Amino acid sequence: MDLVKALGDKYLKPELPPMNVGDTVRVTVRIKEGNRERSQAFEGTIIAKKHGGINETITVRRISYNVGCEKVFPIHSPTIEKVETVRRGKVRRAKLYYLRDRIGKKAKVKERI
């Protein structure tokens, strides 16, 4: 098991900002279309963090045109360019799945000062 951990530690991103569940983040992803490559940002609230180490993922949810959209990002993936924390959230849960049932102002998370 130590060999697998040692191999995985080599690929961890050292420059990740501190992020927790409830924070609003902007994830910039490198997208390949044919022979061209471009960057696309996805901004939303982190509703879940799973696993750890090289397998760590975050689930980011945003609402656009009154439709909820969730994406799961492996944060140590080479396709993830950067993750910026836009706003800190004040929550008392580890998973914010209850936000799936809420729309409008009820779906907001209070800001941590």
Characterize this entry briefly.
The chain is mainly beta and 113 residues long. The chain contains one helix and five strands.
Your description of this structure?
With 113 residues, the protein is mainly beta. It has a single domain (2-104), classed as SH3 type barrels. Helices cover 7% and strands 43% of the residues. It contains 1 helix and 5 strands, in the order αβββββ. It has one helix at 2-9, and strands spanning 24-33, 36-50, 57-64, 67-74, 80-87. It has a 5-stranded antiparallel beta sheet with strand order 4-3-2-1-5, with no helix packed on it. It is globular. The N and C termini lie far apart (41 Å).
Largest sheet: 5 strands, antiparallel
In DSSP terms, counting alpha (H) and pi (I) runs of 4 or more, how many helices?
1
Uncertain stretches: none
Question: What is the name of the CATH architecture?
Answer: Roll
Q: What is the SS-derived class?
A: mainly beta
Mean pLDDT across all amino acids: 94
What CATH first level would be assigned? Mainly Beta
Count of β-strands? 5
Please indicate the percent range of residues in DSSP E strands (runs of 2 or more): 35-45%
| CATH fold type | SH3 type barrels
Strand order of the largest sheet: 4-3-2-1-5
Overall shape: it is globular
> What is the domain tally?
1
The percentage helix is under 10%
Q: Report, as a whole number of angstroms, the end-to-end distance.
A: 41 Å
Offer a few descriptive terms:
globular; five-stranded antiparallel beta sheet; mainly beta; 7% helix; 1 helix; SH3 type barrels; 113 residues
